[in-house]
Amino acid sequence: MARALPDERRPHSPDPGAQPAPPRRRARALALLGALLAAIAAVAAARACALLADAQAAARQESALKVLGTDGLFLFSSLDTDQDSYISPEEFKPIAEKLTGSVPVASYEEEELPHDPSEETLTIEARFQPLLTETMTKSKDGFLGVSRLALSGLRNWTTAASPNAVFAARHFRPFLPPPGQELGQPWWIIPGELSVFTGYLSNNRFYPPPPKGKEVIIHRLLGMFHPRPFVKTRFAPQGTVACLTAVSDSYYTVMFRIHAEFQLSEPPDFPFWFSPGQFTGHIILSKDATHIRDFRLFVPNHRSLNVDMEWLYGASETSNMEVDIGYIPQMELEAVGPSVPSVILDEDGNMIDSRLPSGEPLQFVFEEIKWHQELSWEEAARRLEVAMYPFKKVNYLPFTEAFDRAKAENKLVHSILLWGALDDQSCGSGRTLRETVLESPPILTLLNESFISTWSLVKELEDLQTQQGSPLHRQLAGLHLEKYSFPVEMLICLPNGTVVHHINANYFLDITSMKPEDMENTNVFSFSSTFEDPSTATYMQFLREGLRRGLPLLQP
Ligand SMILES: *[C@@H]1O[C@H](CO)[C@@H](O)[C@H](O)[C@H]1NC(C)=O
Ligand SMILES: *[C@@H]1O[C@H](CO)[C@@H](O)[C@H](O)[C@H]1NC(C)=O
Ligand SMILES: *[C@@H]1O[C@H](CO)[C@@H](O)[C@H](O)[C@H]1NC(C)=O
After folding, report:
1. Ligand 1 centroid distance, CA of 152 (Å)
2. Beta bridge partners of 326
3. Span from the CA of 57 to the centroid of ligand 3 (angstroms)
4. CATH homologous superfamily of domain 390-553?
5. Which of 20, 167, 477, 497 is deepest in the core (most CB within 10 A)?
6. Of 52-56, 223-227, 387-391, 419-423, where does mean pLDDT reach its minimum?
């Protein structure tokens, strides 16, 4: 059962000398998915059929390795997208373009977004400040063991690819809500396609697939930052989700959240993935999308880290991978003003110049919008977040607020302490947890009823501990950090910060990936006879043990 699904990615490691993950670790996430037995059985059957094909593919790989060597084979397989061991003209295209220096002129975007001279256009400006490399963990040892080549795509990316670009108002049609969409009810502009059963998309790619339909506008917007945006991330949750936040007679305000990433390398270098935590923003557009009043898109920069980076340094996708997190101060697109007609007609239908005889551009006057219904920015952001991360149906409070609330309600604190963020794409460590146990209904119910939940970055607590702030906050942070081990620690605490129970995520994932037979032998956990996903059962056990130890110590 543990091998029935695609391999999990290797665990995060900030340590340049880290060993490849042990096989058990790699297999563990698979077992986490145990809940849906039927589906797993189906995959297992398919897997058996695939074994023969695998053996043949392995033999082909073997002989290719002899001919090309590791790096050569890597380059070859990154181009061989259908993995048939032959390079077709289509697959060779990126190399041909690189060698001949020719870039195809007519891009697919222009094909899909034809220009109509009578429509309104919108100018969008990109503001970009490069990633601060000193915020990367690997900068602490001066990027020891990281080849300059690996980081060259990152170091070279100092400006936005297009500082400004002109769009037709109509191109923003994909942001229009579906008919009858209610205020605050999220919908998917680009639905995610990954699930625990599909696994993740290959790391071993350089060029984004041609965007289709609603992906085109997102691709073009993100392409203003860098020429190789992938509108769908390799890992779940991917896609673009939106939410109607205000309605007037003729306008909508739509807030959105995009999970997308960039490929900073090109052959012959190895892939380097740059994954901002999220892109968010809003658009105010007329109900027929002929006029855009306002548009903004940005990577939030209020936390100390907001970008995940992963790069390969060898032919194996699973073992030759480096990971780091960093901070990008600014990555933002904004409309310079509302969309305006490119051609202006006078009352008789004659074209008039959009510049006055003095050379001054015509000034447009825009009607004031009277909103009937409005949703707060915070509420909309929360709904988009829950759409991406169902585990957020439980409220996760900021660290110190959680302890204040726990004191007021006399409850225990359920806390997750991690190296990277739990609720965006900037860290993979939390992915397995949030996509399985933390969103399972029995866990959601127990957390909601009996705990105050919070999660924090290790770096935030380290800062809290050294700041000249409240001694109480310093103590809370200290008690937490004492119990922390890399990469993720789950803790149950009293309102005064004393930790009554804790478990490390790697240990948790290892024990839950044991087969039920192992479990009986080692007697680590006794499972209820009812069919339950082992990781959910184990997390349940962890929470209940926390309650057992903590409840008697709460103030009566
Ligand atoms: C980075 O820039 C240098 C100098 O412009 C160039 O030679 C090199 O090819 C670039 N590298 C990448 C990965 O773009
Ligand atoms: C949490 O509890 C509140 C109050 O009992 C309830 O209204 C809400 O629906 C619950 N949420 C979840 C996710 O169970
Ligand atoms: C918190 O309260 C418990 C139970 O009253 C007590 O044993 C513990 O020492 C307290 N911890 C701190 C840090 O005050």
Report:
1. 7
2. 307
3. 60
4. Glutaredoxin (3.40.30.10)
5. 477
6. 52-56
